[in-house]
User: Which sequence fits this backbone?
């Protein structure tokens, strides 16, 4: 019997979920729900699934085994918990949620229901990043010293104006860090290890009528003693490919989008040339650097395949709820540091209190 998927929230990102599911043997998109009935009907007609106008009816469908939450970021918790209580496995688009309290509620609901929970972080499934992680774990970098990641993208004013939730604290949960750069926030801690401390500056420099940051820089101290930076922006025209740089006392590597740009170690191994031949070419896509619709669905497909295997074998997905929570925690620490002009230590004891927004008050 194929694994039946359902989508909650039929906006732009739902189309990438549908494309990814369609390419998986033994998987099928069977249903969808959106709070706007016409949105569910339109999406269902385009992808060939059944639209539901009441979420509880969709969750009662026995052909639905996995529910993919594709609503705005600050509206992930309620449908995720409802799906878990209905006994469905849960996939949540990034971020898992916009506060630690909400993340914990989702994780707790899935644990109580004994269902799997996966957070969408497709950058971990890129071949170049998988090779980079293996080199770190294999000790090829020696002592890790510096880990930097950059997401220098561009979003038009029209992008923020196109949806009432974009650029708001209540539903976007943040700006360039929480929405765009969260993939690389996840990536850098996955590669370098847990974050111990952050010091950050954020600002809104190129857009109007948004509450959140469109530009930020953060200095990072990792738990292993290494340091690094996370730069995030949607104010860099025309949008550059995202970039991750890892350095140690025995090696350095740079991955741009999904391509290896530098791969040099004190001790070469036989597989290095083959790895560069495979991943050294320029990326086939812009990765959404200047256009949010120009992303690849390959990472989603690989992550859904991982979830299907996790369900079949009983193991946890490679990016489960706990993993998804960590990137949110790091970003919230970045925000707290910027707001208070202080270094912030992790783990956070609670969600930071956001200062009042002049945009919101106006």
Assistant:
């Amino acid at each position: 019997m194929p694994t039946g998927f359902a989508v909650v929230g039929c906006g732009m990102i739902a189309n990438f979920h549908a494309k990814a599911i369609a390419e998986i043997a033994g998987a099928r998109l069977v249903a969808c729900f959106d709070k706007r009935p016409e949105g569910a009907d339109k999406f269902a007609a385009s992808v060939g699934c059944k639209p539901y106008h009441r979420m509880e009816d969709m969750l009662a469908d026995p052909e639905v085994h996995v529910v993919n939450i594709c609503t705005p970021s600050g509206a992930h918790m309620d449908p995720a918990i409802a799906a878990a209580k209905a006994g469905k496995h849960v996939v949540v688009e990034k971020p898992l949620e916009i506060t630690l309290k909400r993340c914990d509620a989702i994780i707790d609901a899935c644990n109580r229901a004994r269902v799997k929970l996966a957070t969408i972080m497709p950058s971990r499934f890129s071949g170049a990043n998988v090779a980079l992680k293996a080199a770190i774990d294999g000790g090829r970098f020696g002592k890790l010293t510096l880990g930097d990641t950059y997401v220098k993208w561009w979003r038009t004013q029209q992008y923020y104006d196109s949806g009432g939730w974009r650029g708001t604290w209540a539903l976007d949960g943040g700006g360039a860090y929480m929405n765009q750069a969260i993939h690389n926030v996840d990536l850098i801690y996955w590669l370098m290890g847990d974050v111990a401390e952050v010091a950050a500056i954020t600002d809104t420099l190129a857009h109007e009528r948004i509450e959140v940051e469109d530009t930020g820089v953060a200095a990072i101290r990792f738990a292993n003693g290494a340091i690094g930076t996370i730069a995030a922006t949607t104010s860099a025209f025309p949008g550059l490919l995202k970039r991750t740089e890892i350095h140690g006392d025995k090696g350095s590597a740079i991955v741009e989008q999904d391509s290896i740009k530098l791969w040099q170690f004190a001790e070469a191994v036989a597989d290095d040339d083959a790895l560069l031949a495979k991943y050294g070419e320029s990326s086939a896509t812009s990765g959404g650097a200047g256009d949010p619709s120009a992303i690849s669905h390959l990472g989603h497909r690989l992550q859904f395949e991982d979830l299907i295997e996790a369900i079949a074998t009983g193991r946890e997905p490679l990016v489960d709820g706990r993993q998804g929570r960590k990137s949110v925690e790091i970003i919230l620490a970045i925000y707290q540091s910027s707001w208070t002009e202080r270094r912030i230590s992790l783990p956070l004891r609670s969600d930071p209190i956001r200062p009042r927004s002049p945009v919101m008050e106006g």
Notes: Confidence is low (pLDDT under 50) at residues 358-362.
